[in-house]
Amino acid sequence: MTTAQDVRAPAPGPSFWIAQSRVRLRTLILLRWLAVIGQTAAVLFVRYGLDVEFPFEWALAAIGASVALNLGLIATRRSQELAKEWEAAALLAYDSVQLAVLLALSGGLQNPFVFLFIAPVAVSATILRPTVTAMLAALTFICVGVISVWRFPLPWPQGAAFELPQLYQLGIAAAVLVGLGFTSVYAWRVAAEEERLNIALAAVQAVLAREQTLSALGGLAAAAAHELGTPLATIHLVAKEMAREAGPDDPHAEDFHLLVTQSERCRAILGQLSAMRDRGDVMVQRAPIRVLLEEVVGPHEGLGPEIHIDAAGEGPLEVKRMPEIVHALGGFVENAVGFANARVDIEARWDAASVEITVRDDGPGFSGAILSRLGEPYLTERDREGAAGGLGLGFFISKTLLERTGATLEVRNRRPPNQGAMVKARWERTSIEAPSL
After folding, report:
1. pLDDT in tens, 177-195
2. With a threshold of 0.85, does the pTM exceed it?
3. Residue 404 CA to chain centroid, in angstroms?
């Protein structure tokens, strides 16, 4: 089972100039069109709706530059392809600078739209590396500083003037910078967690596909044995007739005898495969719950701690032998064996409504720091030290697989005077019980 110790640090990524971002050019182009529409509407409303004088032509020129950039990208690049990291960074940097130009033409920090500086940095935090986002944030800080000094007055109706106190403008600048930092860190954390979860879920799918493939191999071998049985029987019969008709001095007599013995050997192998199918049908499709637990425990016996199985409930119970359950319970047993001092208990209890399978060990138990985070795809080095071992991706895979079968999971430490950890999986009986024959 994969544990947190199996998770390696990612290899150094490609250089900034060839690395791919996680966004298509089409998305960046669409976001800029939205910005162009909003900026154009705001500029036209201020100039003609409010009849306020300001550098209107220069503002339209800045917006026109964005239109020209989008048209150039559409004409020269395929919008479906992923943008390179430097391209995405350059486009977002342009958006920050273009916004700074518009704000400088319309009041600088006094313009209420100054908080739009947060948008490019937030987008960068979700699609680019933190170092690139930090550089974009630094550029945005510079833009905020520049428009706080060099700016046109805030557009205001003629005959009136509006000027915010310098201290208040500094407060706005500080608010923008804090918003940039908070939003970028928050967006980066969310994007990083989503990426890690996607990688972990891909690992779950790979494990499940492997288990299902192994389960299907028995049926495939049995089908091959059935199909090969008839032609092999014909070969065996013809070989025996040829060996019988060959005289003792026939130079091919030894070859005929060898052909008979080898065809008999092939028939024996096919018979074994057919017998494995007859036995395997029960194992693949259904099994008494104790047999299922013995199969789960088998690979871990003799590795140190004693493993005890206790299965009891209302009447006999045969369960569906799902690859998800076999792999997940095997992972829990592996972790229990790795942490136990002397004993691991596997307990199955069932009644007319539910089925519970519990795995207990007598080890140190879960630390408080790790207990609240168990089931996350990966745990940090600090978490692993607190747990005295690895409990990362493997535990996540087991938890996800069991939940796919309809189980609910309870993970906690055993109550004093007992010590150790306990993992309990509970199903509705109808979801796990094999249908009657």
Report:
1. 887 777 777 777 776 666 6
2. no
3. 15
